[in-house]
Amino acid sequence: MVKIVKIVLDAGHGLNTPGKSSPDGEREWEFNSQVVQACAAKLATYGNVQVLRVDDLTGKTDVPLRERTDRANRWNANVYVAVHHNANTGKWGVWTGVETYVMNSPAVSPKSLELARLVGPRIAEAMGLKDRGVKRANFHVLRETKMPAILTEGGFMDSKIDIQTLRSKERLKAQGEALAEALAVYFKLQ
């Protein structure tokens, strides 16, 4: 019997979530959603994969985190991937880079760490940005999921450096495809 790999994608936040924008007002969800769409499209080229998106596809509703993780858990997903884009101060600066988060716990799944180490360098390369490495945090989507889970930060929305890349549809597509390719390596997808 062929095993189906179930991948949850979460384009974090909603269009109108307060504080989730660049200093010029570009909404984080729009960056996140483009990455998730590209990732899902690339994953569709592999066999034996199902994708569940747990955010609102229109971005109009900021789906509560509990609802997102409960759906993933009920679906018995094999992995949870939350896609985000960072902010430092909310004012333009010169910080830069990509980060990949796992749960801040001694009991963090080794599978989460393995996936994070596959994903970070690939999305950094796709974005043409520095890889700031694997970080740990006590985020709801990492803590309340019953499967390996990671959260990506694909660049800083308030960075004069990173915003140039975030404004490129080609780079966001490349980030999503790099994420899908890392998942394909992790799950040995054909």
UniProtKB/TrEMBL annotation:
Keywords from the UniProt entry: Hydrolase
Occurrences of domain MurNAc-LAA (ranges): 69-184
Domain of life: Bacteria
Official protein name in the record: N-acetylmuramoyl-L-alanine amidase
Listed InterPro entries: MurNAc-LAA_cat (IPR002508), N-acetylmuramoyl_amidase_3 (IPR050695)
Presence of the UniProt keyword Hydrolase in the record: yes
SMART domains registered for this protein in UniProt: Ami_3 (SM00646)
Keyword NAD (UniProt): no
Organism this protein belongs to: Sporosarcina highlanderae
